[in-house]
Structures are given as structure tokens and as C-alpha cells.
Description:
By secondary structure, this protein is an alpha/beta fold.
Amino acid sequence: MDGVTGHRPLLFLAPMAGVTNTVFRRLCKELGADVLTTEFVSAEGILHRNERTSRYLEFQPEERPLGVQLFGADPERLGEAVKAVVDWVAPDFIDLNFGCPVNKVVSRNGGSALLKDCPLLASVARSVVAAAKGLPVTAKIRIGWDSRSVNAMETARILEGEGISRLAVHGRTKEQGYSGAADWDVITSVVKAVKIPVIGNGDIDSAAVALERLRQSGAAGIMIGRAAMNHPWIFREIRAALNGEEGIGSVTLADKWAFIEDHCAKEIAWWKGQEAQAMKAMRARLMAYTRGLTGGARLRERLQRVETLSGLRQIASDHMGGNAS
Length: 325
């Protein structure tokens, strides 16, 4: 439906604001991610074609199949935005964000706010599917607004009825944010409630967990977000496990630093050589990469001030020279 065929479980990189730009998406694709989606963009940003939105939408051919994720609550404006973005960048599919829990999005009636207003959610989906004119439209939801209003099965059926062709379900409520545990029992119920492919999302931090969740839920695939931020090799590890491959070695400290350096170099290139600006933009990503490394606190102290690639190399050299693991 969007350039992906076959019945093997698919591996999705979750769209994450400030994280999944074209550089990081390509790195994850090289490691085994099957399907990529842009950071979410607002309908208004697309209709105004502003520079920030242009950067959000930038991608390379090797990233396909790639979707553009939209958020908003005005069915008419979202429909117009779909037509505009298809003309602008020709994505492989459109994805609707009905799951973002961030207050600045929810306060504008976007993201997970629509889980409380099923008629509006249905209207948004209907408008976007019509505007897409046959281009697949997918959606991402959470299981509900809070623990007292878990309505993922109802939401899934509504979206399926409006022509949504694939659904990703994050197993938390809006109220949970990213705390607590993802409820995969609800995801399993959604899989059983609809005929369209359902992608499970939440707390996938290893190949073993991924295989167990796929077995438990019957989901058509797995979406990985936060785990990919500090360990993007998870895609390679899950794919190997799905293929029954053994002998996939662990990622060494040298491997990690080589990957981090490559990520920074590609980010600098994306910033057209503006090294200091690129390295500043990378700092939050560098913090994520330190998770689990010996001497993480000291590393983070140094990395939050790094301004050059040569400075990063020195930090890496010092860290590996200290026999850290």
C-alpha cells in the first residue's frame, strides 16, 4: 500500500520531534528500519511553506517508503495541507498524529486531544483520505486520554471506517505521557478489532522483547522510538532475530563512537558546513548516546559543550583510552 509488501513483520522508526530528521532516519534505515516518517508538521506550516517546515520535510530517495506526519484539528485545512504536501515533496503516504501528548500540541486541539472527540477525529480522517486521492493515509494513536477513557478499539474502528489503511498504537494514554508501562493487552485487542494492519509501539528495548510482543499481539510490525535514540542498532538486532540469525555481535565501544562521529559529520553536512550550529543541534542526541556508557555523567558534562567534530573525537579518544566499556 505504500511501497512495502509481503507479510514479514515491519520495523518502523517512530517520528520524534527534534530527533528523526533526514540524517537520523537514514542512519536507522541503514541499520534495518523498514518504514520512516518525518517529524510531525502542522497543516499551517505546510500551507505557508515556511523554512522550518521545509527542513522537516527534507528527505533523500533512499529513505522511501517515507510518510509525512501531519497534526491539526481543522479538517478543511488539513485536507488542503495534504494536497500541498503531495505537490511539494511527493511522500509515499500521509500519517495523521492522534497520539502526541505534548501540551503545546494538545492545547491547540491536536495530537491526542482528538481521542476525546471521536466525531472530530473521524472528520479529520475523512477529509485527509479524500484529499489524498488514493495515496495511503495512516494514523498513530494512543490507547486513550487517561486510564478512565481507554477507547483505542473504538478509535481504531472509526479510523478504519474512514479509510485509514494502517494504524500505529502507542500502548500508553495521553495522561501517562512516557511514564509507566505500555499496555500491550490493549494493543492486542486493537489488532483483533480491525482488519487493517496494526503496528505496536511502546517499551520495545531489545530484540527479545520485540519478538515476544509480536507473538503476543499479532501486530503487523513494531514501532521503535526512544530505544532507537540511544541504541539505533536495535533495528539490526530485531531483524536478525526475526530471521533466526545467530552470531550478531554486540556493539563495541569503538563501534559506538564511530557511529556517533559519523552521525555528527552527516549532521554538519546537512547544516551545510555550519559546524558549531550542527554540533549544538546534536547535543541532545549525544546525551542519548551516553546512556549505559561508563562515566556517563562526565561524558555528558563534556558533550554538552562540544562545538566541533575534532572536539568530539578528542572526547571519544579520552573515553576509549580510559578503558571504559
